[in-house]
Write a structure and sequence with these properties.
InterPro entries: 2keto-3dGluconate_permease
Order of helices and strands: HHHHHHHHHHHHHHHHH
Keywords: Cell membrane, Membrane, Sugar transport, Symport, Transmembrane, Transmembrane helix, Transport
Strand content: under 5%
Number of domains: 1
Number of helices: 17
GO molecular function, one term: 2-keto-3-deoxygluconate:proton symporter activity
Protein name: 2-keto-3-deoxygluconate permease
Radius of gyration: 19 Å
CATH topology: Na+/H+ antiporter like fold
Oligomer: single chain
Helix content: over 70%
Family: Belongs to the KdgT transporter family.
Length: 336
């Protein structure tokens, strides 16, 4: 029996009922298929292109589309929010990890190396941030995705390791990550029609690039990360998400809306590759790569589950969830 929208099975609405579900459910499905039936995605053609190799181009499209929604009227708040997210999610955690490393050395603590801590703590899952802020955030929150574009990958890990003379900052790679957003801002302000055309992009591309990212997460690696990886994921959600929450409350003065800051307490799927990239720059870290990679894979899944749940719980507890959901929908409709 179909509902009033002609829907036989409400797949999309069911995914949206779960905080971050638009990204989380495809990510988990991709992980299952990538682990137990990887050959199904290697048949080539459009199937491989869409379901296995689409993550980077679709994320790039999402970054561009998000930029088109940032008008001159919202630019100031977007930059302020982006700055707070970067400070609380990347800079402060990175400094704390480096301070710990000065005491413990590269081995870190409890079997978690400084490499694993930096790779997992200094970046965030931008797709999940967009999924949560698209449901509960304002334009300034969605625009702060640029923080995810900057901190995604090995950039901050190399930056902080570079403070000890290790690694180099890949400036061109950093520029390449930010450029689609900047171009989107320009296009959206020059021609409002593009803003209208690209408004539905998040709902379209998030499930597909999430599935593609999931295919690169082997559940065996997550299991190998064991208890240390799971505990690290819980710790990072609470600590780094809590820092962004404090930034929202103290610096941005968002009051009851500050709970959305916990949506930044995640580890990006791309960070699974960070240990190997760092070791390529400095072979002395090679001994930590295997364990760090498995721990980070666990962090990706644990934080993707906990962060949106915690953010949504706090927003509902503060009474801001319903208001933000309505205002977010109204803002996106007005932007169209």
């Amino acid at each position: 029996m179909r509902d009033g929208h002609g829907t036989l099975v409400p797949l999309f609405r069911t995914m949206n009922r779960l905080p971050g579900g638009l990204m989380l459910i495809p990510l988990l499905l991709g992980s299952v298929i990538g682990t137990f039936a990887p050959g199904a995605l290697e048949i080539g053609g459009f199937t491989t292109a869409l379901f296995k190799d689409s993550a980077l181009p679709l994320i790039a499209l999402l970054i561009f589309a998000t930029g088109t929604q940032v008008t001159m009227r919202t630019g100031g708040p977007v930059l302020a929010t982006t700055g707070v997210v970067l400070l609380a999610k990347s800079v402060i955690p990175g400094l704390l990890v480096i301070a710990l490393g000065a005491v413990t050395g590269a081995d870190g603590v409890l079997g978690v190396s400084i490499l694993a801590l930096l790779a997992a703590a200094t970046n965030s899952n931008g797709g999940l941030w967009l999924a949560v802020t698209g449901q509960y955030g304002r334009a300034r929150d969605r625009g702060a995705y640029i923080a995810g574009a900057i901190n995604d990958g090995p950039f901050f890990a190399l930056l902080f390791l570079g403070a000890s003379g290790l690694g180099e900052i890949p400036f061109l790679a950093l520029l390449a990550a930010v450029l689609p957003f900047v171009l989107g801002v320009i296009v959206g302000n020059v021609d409002a029609k593009w803003r209208e055309v690209l408004t539905p992009v998040p709902n379209i591309v998030i499930p597909f690039f999430s599935f593609s990212l999931g295919t690169g997460i082997n559940l065996a690696d997550v299991a190998a990360g064991g208890l240390s990886g799971i505990l690290l994921g819980v710790l990072l959600t609470v600590v780094t998400g809590g820092l962004v929450y404090l930034g929202y409350r103290v610096l941005l003065r968002r009051g009851a809306e500050s709970g959305i800051g916990f949506a930044a307490g995640t580890t990006s799927g791309n960070s699974v590759a960070t240990p190997a990239i760092v070791a390529a720059a400095d072979p002395s870290f090679q001994q930590y790569v295997g364990t760090a990679t498995s721990q980070i894979a666990a962090c990706v899944l644990v934080t993707a589950i906990l962060a949106p749940l915690l953010a949504t719980w706090l927003l509902k507890r503060s009474g801001a969830a319903d208001t933000l959901a309505k205002e977010s929908a109204a803002e996106q409709e007005a932007a169209a």
